Protein: LacI family transcriptional regulator
Organism: Paenibacillus harenae
Amino acid sequence: MASIKDVAILAGVAVGTVSRVINNTGAVKPDTRKKVKEAIEQLNYIPNEVARNFKMQKSKMVSLLLPSIWHPFFSELAYYIEDELDREGYKLMLCNSGGRPEKELYYLDMLQQNKVAGIVGITYNDIEKNVNTNIPIVSIDRHFTKKITCVTSDNFEGGRLGLRELVKAGARKPAFIGTVPKVFSETINRRDGFVHEANELGIEHVVFVKPDPLEDEEEFFSEFLRAHNDIDGVFAMTDMFAAKYIERSSKLGIRVPENVKVIGYDGIQNHGLFHPVLSTIRQPVEEMARTTVRLLIKKINGEALDRETYRIPVVFRKGETT
Amino acid sequence: MASIKDVAILAGVAVGTVSRVINNTGAVKPDTRKKVKEAIEQLNYIPNEVARNFKMQKSKMVSLLLPSIWHPFFSELAYYIEDELDREGYKLMLCNSGGRPEKELYYLDMLQQNKVAGIVGITYNDIEKNVNTNIPIVSIDRHFTKKITCVTSDNFEGGRLGLRELVKAGARKPAFIGTVPKVFSETINRRDGFVHEANELGIEHVVFVKPDPLEDEEEFFSEFLRAHNDIDGVFAMTDMFAAKYIERSSKLGIRVPENVKVIGYDGIQNHGLFHPVLSTIRQPVEEMARTTVRLLIKKINGEALDRETYRIPVVFRKGETT
């Protein structure tokens, strides 16, 4: 049977090039690629990798579950996850779960049937009971209590940082606004970090939260604006939340940052073209994505991980709202 | 051998429910789903669909090729494409080609090896020579001359509409600004429609374009602003382009819309939270996405299509820049 070396010789390229073509890792010029593939056909060469996958039915596909790809944070995340998977020779299957349990469970089935090698992403349903500890799943933000590896930005530190930056910008009575998901989510730590730091520094503060999903957004903001018209700082759970506060408060003549300093969380604005450019706690999206993939591939290969939760440091990015 | 009816009876549900579970179409309560799957296992029932796929090695996977999912227009497109594919029982494989030919060609190989049932998306490389007419590929925006079915917004009408709206808003000397891709792209029609309508109406106008990709964005805009300081309207090839023009012109004291009316193309702002809210030619993204999938599935099923290019009507969405 022909070897990879025979293919390289016939194609007139290095063995490494043949391997790159077979595994689709790294750049290969189209015409070089063509030559290699012709040599493979001519020699009827079966790459070990392919042969092994065929024998073991090993999938080179990873599913990404997201509430919706149509969101700047999730699409940036998906971009880097696909890029990192591609480097490892894996393909990405995208699923907008829309928070629908049956759709998320379907992908769990595919995993159990080895149709996909692993799952990464964000799920908002408590599908924990359907999974076991060693299954190759890496969760982003969401904690499956103690069972599933989780990669997240350091939300608690982000909350502390948000409070400190508001105070530094001159706020004397800052408020945290956001929602509380049904199942435990890392995002709660943004609030807890904010409260912890306020107490540490002895800063008077307000926490205004409602259950997620919000039934009436209008009501949320008008109630907040009515009940807490003396606050001079807002730390919003997300950038979108911050932008919505600014939009509504401006209708009441509240000026940002003159009257109220505002800080969001995520860093969805990757250019300064639309205003206000939010001051925000920037999620390390690229590092979260690549870390998630690297951990997943370790799990796929049966390697043990040293932790359950991997927290990636966040940074404050000053915009026009503080 | 057990039938789907046996499964339904044992699970105590309707046959339709069993079918929905098998094909993952429509919503099924998790516990109902569980019951059905247990019945399937207990009876060792093999769904025809599964059996058929197994026999024919028919893939239920479709690849989506995009330059980058990390772009608001592409992520909205991907959202609706995944949703429509899901309704048809297909899974979506996402590829950020980044315009890399070897990556796009790899997915063509998968298609030829029946690892994927079809390909949809936007490619910027001339991979036409590698495909034949009947291959299940549907292109968005990009034309593979005469070979591949293409779904696009009506860019020519969009260009005409843009010119008319600028004139209606008071512009006497509007300009088109944009880039010209190496391979033919539907986006060219935005310029051509703009010029056509300007000539029709006898409107003095400017066309300022450079080859894509832009080598020096700064230079592009400063040259345009220097050479054409008498224009009072701008129709930009994309929203991002429009926003960049506004950002740079404002530094020269040019006020939008007072001095210059600006219209973009795409409609990437799906909320009014960040400003300026661009006046724009809104792409019918959802309809483009669902049409693309419906046409692809017809091709997968070997049905003949009545056209090569499907143009979806666009609308003008007034913002704060006209």
